[in-house]
Amino acid sequence: MDTYLKIKQTLNNSSGSCVVLRKGDPYCVVMTWQEYEKFANIINDNKKLKNGREKIGNGVDINSIPV
Question: Which of 11, 24, 43, 59 is the most buried (most CB within 10 A)?
């Protein structure tokens, strides 16, 4: 199976995001558009807060992204 098809299959079977490895090391994160919008909204909401110590949502747990 080529890389593109494996990534596509993983995105369809998981939470919508996955980490791509290159030579055993994390290379990039691939995600569906819906997943991207969700994380972009969390990041933008956090940037808009006046109090930098307060956070909206749970943020991104890197350990929850399938490899």
Answer: 11
Q: Please state the rounded mean pLDDT for residues 20-30.
A: 89
Residues present in the chain in total: 67
User: Can you tell me the distance from the alpha carbon of 37 to that of 16, in angstroms, rounded to the nearest whole number?
Assistant: 11
Residue appearing with tokens 């006046």: 50
Between 60 and 35, residue with greater pLDDT: 35
How far CA 14 is from CA of 8, 19, 51, 54, in Å, comes to 10, 12, 34, 30
DSSP state for residue 40 in the 8-state scheme? H
User: Residues with Cβ < 8 Å from 19, sequence gap 6 or more?
Assistant: 26, 27, 28, 29, 30, 65, 66, 67
